[in-house]
Amino acid sequence: MRALDKKIETSHREIADVAEAARLMRAVSVAGALAKLELGLRVQGKYSWQDNAMVLLESGAEELRTLLARGR
Q1: CA nearest neighbour of 32 among 44, 18, 54, 40
Q2: Can you state the angle between helices 2-24 and 30-44, rounded to 10 degrees?
Q3: What is the largest CA-CA distance in the chain?
Q4: What Rg value do the Cα atoms of the chain yield, rounded?
Q5: What string of pLDDT tens digits covers the 72 residues of the chain?
């Protein structure tokens, strides 16, 4: 169990480092901003979110992606 706890702790630290690096990068396009949004959702994960808020964010991100693909 201690070995597993250490792996989990290391993974959480690595995720936090990636998230901080991404936070410091400025998006230069709508697609880049969307990528940061999606990364934030993945880093947060499905825990500690209200179910409807998570669904709304994911839906909005998908709709934005579709609009960008259509050139709107």
Answers
A1: 40
A2: 160
A3: 51
A4: 15
A5: 999 999 999 988 888 888 888 888 888 888 888 888 888 888 777 777 767 777 778 888 888 888 888 886
